[in-house]
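Researcher: I'm preparing a figure for a lab meeting and need a structural model of a single chain. I don't have an experimental structure, so a prediction will have to do for now. The sequence is pasted below. Please return the structure as C-alpha cells so I can convert it later.
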Amino acid sequence: MFKALFVDDEIIVREGVERRVDWESHGFQLMGTLANGSQVVSYLEKDDDIQLVFSDISMPNMDGLELAKYLQEHHPHIYVLLLTGYDEFEYAREAIKYHVKELLLKPITAHEMGRVLDGVHQVLEGEQYRKLEQEELQRLATESRPLLRERFLNSLVKGNSSPDQLSQQLTVYDLPRMKGPCICIVLDPYPEGDQDDPQQYFMISLHELCRKHLQKQDILFQDKDDRPVYILQQESAQRLIDRSRLICSQIRQQLNQHYHASVSFGIGRVCSDFSEVHRSYRDALAALKHQFVLGKNRIISYDDISHDQSSLKEIRRDVEEELLDSLKTQPADASQQIVSRFFQETFSEHVNLRQAQLQTHLLFGTLLTFAEEAGIDPSRVIPSSQEGLVEVFSLRSREEVEQWFFQCIEQIHRQVSTSSLDVTEQKIRQAVAYIEEHYSLPQVNVQDVSRELHISPSHFSALFKRHTGKTFVEYLTGVRVRQASMLLKTTNLCAYEVSEAVGYEDSHYFSQVFKKVTGMTIREYRSMIGSSEEGGKG
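Model: Understood. Here is the structure written out cell by cell.
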C-alpha cells in the first residue's frame, strides 16, 4: 500500500475524488486532498513518506508545474501525475523536464483514474523491488568484501590476476599500492591439541599477532590452506630481507613463549614488482617443504635452502642392517631409536628435499621388505607401497615423518609378536598330540618331542612350561595316569599289564606314581569303581 496526495484548487473536485475513487482497491492510501502546491510543501516538511502526488496544473499560489519542479529538486522519489485541460496541454509539456511521469487530460472519470492508479502502483512496486534488491546487493557486497578481498589476494599469489587490472583491483579492495620491492612470507602453524575449537581460537590469535607487525604498506591474508601470508614492501631489497627475518623471529618467539606452539616460516625471494608476487609466494611454499628435511619451528628462506640436484643412491647400509636386526630381536623402542638417529644424522641443512625424499623412500622399502619376509601381511602394518609413500610424503615436517615411521615400527613389532605367539601355540599343540600318541612308549622324552618339532630341548621345555603350566614329565605323567584309570575301569587287566600299557616298565614304580596322582592305590581305585557300579545297579 503506497501513500498519495491529491491536489486541486476546486473543492468539489477534491471531494469527488475522495468519495468516488476507491484508492485502497488500487493499492493506495489517500493521505489528504490539498488546494495548491504550497500546502503540499507544508505537508512534506512534516511528513515526506509519500510516494504519489496527483495534481492539477492550474492552481493559485503554486501551480502544478512549480510543484513538480519543487518535488524534482527536493523529493525526487515521489511519483508525479499532472491533470491538464486540452488548451493547456502544449504548455504542460514543460513538465517533462521536471520528471513528471504522466500528463492526463481533463475531465477524467473515476474509472479512468482507477486504471491510471493501477499502472502507477505497478510501476512503484517494481521500483520498490529494485530498490530493495539494490539494498540487498549492497549489503551482501559489504558483508562479502573481506571474502572477496581474500579471494583476490589468493588469485594474485597464484598468478591468476591480470596485471592490467591490478591497480584498479587494489583500489576496489582498499589495498596499499605496491611501488617498490616486495616479498612473500607464508606461515605454517602447528596448533597444540586436536580439538577444533582450540585450533580455531589459536588461528584467530595467530592472525591478530601477525597483524601487530603490519606496517601501512603491508598486506596480511590467509591462503586456501588457512595459512597466514604476509606481503611486505620496503624501499630496498636488503631492508626487505632483514625485516622479513626479524618479523618471523619475533612471531616465532612470542608463539613459543605464550602459546607453547610451533610455527614454521617460508620466505620467498624478493621480487621487484608487485605483479610478480606470485613467484615469491611459490618460493615461500617451496621453502616450507624443507620442513620435511629440517623439522618444524624453523625460519626457512628460499635463498638458503640447498638446490643441489645430486642424490644419494641408497640408504646407509649400517642403518639398514642395524634396523633389520632390531626388528627381529629387539623391542620396538630400540628400532625407533635407530630411525630417530637416522633422521638426525642423514637429514641436515646440506641435504635438499629430493635427497631427503629418496632416503625416506628407501627406509620405507626396508620396512616393507622386512614385513614381507617375516610373513606379515604388509597392509596390516603399513599401506601398500604407493599409498604409503603418498601418505608419508604428504606430511609437513621431519617430526611428523619420524612419528609416522615410529607407528609403522610399533605395528611391525606387534605383528611379529603375534606371529611368534601363533607359531608357539602351534608347536605346543603338536607336542601335546605327540605325547597323546606316544605316551605308551617307555623311553619317550623331551629330546624326542623337541627333535620332532625342530627346536632345542631347553627352548621346548621353557615354552611347554609357559603355555601348559606343567613340565614335560608332569604332563606326560598326567596323560599316563588318565589312560591307566580308563583301563582299570574298563578292563580286567592286572596292575603290571596296565603299567606296561601306559609306558611304565616297573609296575611297582607305576603304583607309586598312580597313588601320588590320584591319592589311591590301584586296589583302592578298583574297589571304589566296583562299589560305584554295584550302587548303580542297586
